[in-house]
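User: Thanks for the earlier help. One more: Galactose mutarotase. Can you show the sequence and predicted structure together?

Assistant: Of course, both are below.
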Amino acid sequence: MSTEFTLSAGGYTAVVSARAAAIRVLQFEGRDLVVPFPQGGPIPDYRGVIAAPWPNRIADGTYTFDGVEHRVPINEPERATALHGLAFPLDWTLKESDAGALTLTCTVGPTAGYPFVLELSARFTLDEAGLHTSVTARNAGSIAAPYGVCPHPYLVAGSSPLDEWILEFAADSFLEVTPDRLLPVGLAPTEGHLFDFRSPRAIGSTEIDHAFTGITFDGGLARLSVRDPAGTGVGGSGVGMSWDESCQWLQIHTADKPAPIPGRLGLAVEPMTCPPDAFNSGTDLIRLEPGAEHTASWSIYTL
């Protein structure tokens, strides 16, 4: 059974697992803000993990960096892709902790298809404004490394069905993808599309598993809100997420599942430093030189 750590502050409780540095539980006044998962055993649907050194997918598990072709293991065989990086199977190590914060670390690589060495550090801080996470990657190797990161929480607005939740986030474009493999095709405007949530409205039956960009940042932060129209009283009526300008992309997934598997339990909200298959396209891919660092930050809070 994986070690886990509990933080409490300002009406919030967070439980972070050493496995994948995943947020297993996040509650405000007893109300779930993310879809939880049982202690021990596998983490279902990558709930709450840190996805690094790439978010989303690499087509065929193959990419070329600095003229060298690499092949990472395929872990999404139905789409023949490598999904969500290499850090999620790992048990992260506690570096430091106190009543309201903790830092977990792990080392990624060198391994098959990723002959680079990254030292990852995830800092979790809980206060009256919510749960704040920052992930820093340091290239501890001797050659430049490709890098990207994102969190993978499934937000919960309330007890009403997801179709009734009111979603709002400001993004001008979304990435069209192939229907069978969810690999990038090209950008399209959100205006006039079912994916336009620049003004708050119900999700309805819309199925989303797409990346968005052209995101509005106000004071250095982008914000998303999802509210339960029936939610009132203690614990608030929804959940919000903010992130810094290191993440110019946002993956939204309505967690649709084929029957009889329960679906649409939460809304996956994944601020990403780069889009899907960036290891091949190079779009917003971070190049970490030896000794260089990169930090991305985000927060989850009640509304």
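User: Great, one quick takeaway?

Assistant: The chain has one helix and 27 strands.
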